[in-house]
Amino acid sequence: MRIVRWLPGWTIPALLLAACDPRPDVLTFSGSTLGAEGALVRAQIARFAAARPELTVIVQATPDAADQRHQLYVQWLNGWAADPDVLQLDVIWTPEFAAAGWILPFDRFGMPADELADFFPAALAADRWQGRLYALPWFVDVGMLYWRTDLMPAPPATLAELARIGRDARDAGRVRTGFVWQGARYEGLVAVFLEHLTAFGGRILDDHGAVVVDSPAARHALAFMYDAIHRDGIVPAAVLAWQEEQTRFAFQNGDAAFMRNWPYAAALLARPGESRVAGRFAIAPMPSATARSAAALGGAHLAINARTSQPDAAWDLVRYLTAPEQMIERAEIAGQLPARRSVYADARLAHALPVAPEEARGAIERAVPRPVTPVYTQLSGILQIHLHRALTRQQAPADALSGAAGAMRQVLASSGLGRRGR
Amino acid sequence: MSRSDARLAWLLVAPAMSLIALVAVAPLAASMWESLHLHDLRLPWLGRPFVGLAHYRAAVADARLHEALVHTAFFTAASVALELAFGMALALILHHLVRGRALARVVVLLPWALPAVVAALVWRFMFEGEWLSHPRGAWVPIVLGDVWKSTPFVALLLLAGLQAIDPALHEAAALDGAGPWRRFRSITLPLLRPVIAVALVFRMLDAFRVFDFVYLLTGGGPGTATEVISLYAFSTLFQELRFGYGAALSTVTFAIVFLLSLGWVRALRTGEDA
Questions:
Q1: Of A133, A303, B1, B152, which residue has the fewest beta carbons closer than 10 angstroms?
Q2: Which helix (H) or strand (E) holds B245?
Q3: Which of B44, B130, B132 has the CB atom closest to A101's CB atom?
Q4: B149 to chain A nearest CA, in Å?
Q5: Which of A67, A78, A386 sits opposite B41 (nearest CB)?
Q6: What whole-number distance in Å separates Cα of residue A281 and Cα of residue A255?
Q7: How far, in Å, CA of B162 to CA of B165, rounded?
């Protein structure tokens, strides 16, 4: 076969050429491209591209599961790929990518300080590494309590109250189960734990960056989660394999009195054709216990590939996507909360969000960020494993927490972070 | 062989040898070299110092690695034993089928043809719920899924072996009054031994490197109750970005698989001599 003989001859140089070609007129964005959110991103990017005829902007699909997207980014960026130029990062990845030198510091673009001050401080803090800014908040996520308006007159203010209402509703046969949350061994479990932890007055790291996840408050928080499943039976053991969508399905089918989830679920639960709880649910802040009510702070941020061939065009795209107009549109279409505080005064937002804008803004201002450190993935991995061991009855909750704390301290001690400060 | 013949022979195999060196040996050597360094992408200020065997000393003391090795060995033993038993049964049925043999073979082969990711998601869907969050129960869908997917491969290998056995042997034994069980034990099994060994080698090495089913069904959970060695190496490398230690874990996996293969090749060779 002649073709076979000369094919490798020209393909290799062609591939090499393709790999080296910086394609100066193509800008690549990568992030969530599923469903309404994907359609929205494509529409906004098409508008941006229409105003910049010299540019071709490509939307590159990535897996929607956060850890899979993380892995793909690691492969690309560690392989010195110049594409994608603009990356959608999870709130917890920025310090890690910044420390690895994979994303561009934004100082060179000179963003006005007063405009920067418009972003929620906790979200912006997650974008800084060693004093420099590496990303901009795109939208904010906060953990919220979804509750059934047909089962109770008002949402519970405390976890104890939640447990009582959930148990009564279940015993009366009005729901199959009391409360559902994300209990699979993944990042979502840490967010749920962080909310319980804050409700009991505990923290993961203290102000000096020391691990305090084995405190009495933490033991109370984990004991509450454990008892809810194994003693009181208000949380089904099935949640230990559930992520966001499985919890939404359970709540949407009318199986549960309460659900902990991010704001995205509200728009989907309100669709009458698909949801059995449409018109019968509302959203409230997560309940407190002995301390304060607090949501875990999540969300997406936009960063620029350090090896991009066109940093200025990439910055223009980041600025465009994080502008107030695009954030309002995102709230209207995808139900995701704007990352700029000034936007909450806009009248259009009142119609877009499932909760009053002032209430949403308050929840974000009070939300608890996860530790900002380049070794966060590893700390979270350790915590996930130990929490999951306790909740699946492989280890006593107190032992699991002290095991996690010990392993996390070891990671921090060998990271050299202590000597450098933060 | 004269010296010039030998030189020509080396010259002729040189391209193949260099290709093997390029695609197999070079990455392996690079990975081993990496495993002797502290290299953490998240912590560039630590540099990339040579640490000798420090990662391997850490691996010896790493409880999570020990657990992962036990899990991998358990998975390998359980799934390969079941695949061999079911594969043998399936092969015997196919061998003795009088009608519809071609169709039956295609049907039997279907699970093997399905991409592992699709198969794993189907099994996940069937076992959604408390199975996956039970430390021992979670093994059930993992092992069953793998058995379901790989049994056809074993069956097909064994079927080829069965068809190579001269039917005259069975006829003669039957004339001598040997029943089916006796003929299976005294004729089929001994003659099938080399084929069984080949199936065992392939499946054991495959099972030892299992990743897809565990990753998709449990992700190694609950806790780390189903974490296998390749999954641990993967999360160290790609989730935690600890390239030095991850390379050491990969090297440990490679060493075990290499020694296993070596042992099997030896065993097969002595089997042939006997």
A1: B1
A2: helix B243-273
A3: B44
A4: 23
A5: A78
A6: 13
A7: 5
Count of other CB atoms within 10 angstroms of residue A93: 26
Chain B contacts of A76, Cβ < 8 Å? Answer: none
- Asked if the model's pLDDT at residue A100 lies above 50, the reply is yes
Task: Give the pair of three-digit tokens for residue A337.
Answer: 């909360």
Interface predicted TM-score (ipTM) of this complex, two decimals: 0.81
pLDDT for position A6: 38
Phi-psi region of A142 (alpha: psi -120 to 50; beta: other; left: phi over 0): beta
Tell me which chain B residues have a C-beta less than 8 angstroms from the C-beta of A416.
43, 45-46
A144-294, CATH topology level: D-Maltodextrin-Binding Protein; domain 2 (3.40.190)
* Strand order from edge to edge, sheet including A337-338: A56-61, A26-31, A86-90, A297-304, A136-142, A337-338
Q: Which of A310, A317, A341 is nearest to A140 (CA)?
A: A341
A12–chain B Cβ distance below 8 A for any pair: no
More confident residue, A210 or A420: A210
CA neighbor of A43 nearest in space, from A29, A54, A64:
A29
Mean pLDDT value across residues A15-30: 64
How many whole angstroms separate alpha carbon A316 and alpha carbon A44?
13
Planar angle of CA B34, B37, B39, nearest 5 degrees: 85
Residues within 8 A of A (CB atoms), B 43-72 only:
43-46
Peptide bond into A95 cis (omega under 30): no
How far is A118 from B260, CA to CA, in rounded Å?
61
Q: Which of A147-161, A407-421, B20-34 has the least mean pLDDT? A: A407-421
Residue B200 tokens read as 């065992």
At residue A66, what is the residue type?
Answer: A
CA atoms of A391 and A375, how far apart (whole Å): 24
- Look up residue B212 and give its DSSP letter: H
Residue B228 pLDDT > 80:
yes
Which one-letter DSSP state was computed for residue B50?
Answer: B
At A57, the pLDDT band (50, 70, 90 cuts) reads very high
pLDDT at B273 (0 to 100): 52
Residue B96, classed as helix, strand or coil, is helix
With 90 as the cut, is the pLDDT of residue A213 above it? yes
Q: What is the dihedral of CA A13, A19, A23, A28, to 10 degrees?
A: 150
SS3 assignment, position B22: helix
Strand partners, A61: A31
Residue B71 pLDDT level (bands cut at 50, 70, 90): very high
Cross-strand pairs, A297: A142
Find out if CATH 1.10.3720.10 is the number for domain B61-273.
Answer: yes
* Alpha-carbon distance values, A154 to A162, A280, B50 (Å): 11, 12, 62
**Inter-chain touch A388–B41, beta carbons under 8 Å:** no
Smallest CA–CA distance, residue B166 to chain A, in Å, is 40
- Which SS3 state, helix, strand or coil, does residue A158 take? strand
Q: Report residue A93 CA to chain centroid gap.
A: 10
Contacts of A246 in chain B (CB under 8 A): 128
Domain A24-141+297-366 in CATH: superfamily? Answer: Periplasmic binding protein-like II (3.40.190.10)
Single-letter amino acid code for the residue at B36: L
d(CA B77, CA A132): 52
Note whether A394 contacts B: Cβ–Cβ < 8 A.
Answer: yes
Q: What's A299's DSSP letter?
A: E
pLDDT at residue B206 tops 70: yes
CB contact A58 to B (< 8 Å): no
Residues B153 and B112 sit within 8 Å (Cβ to Cβ): yes
The whole-number pLDDT of residue B125 equals 85
User: Which residues are bridge partners to A300 per DSSP?
Assistant: A90, A139
Q: Is the pLDDT of residue A417 over 80?
A: no
Range B181-198 average pLDDT: 91
Query: In angstroms, rounded to a whole number, what is the distance separating the alpha carbons of residues B256 and B259?
Result: 5
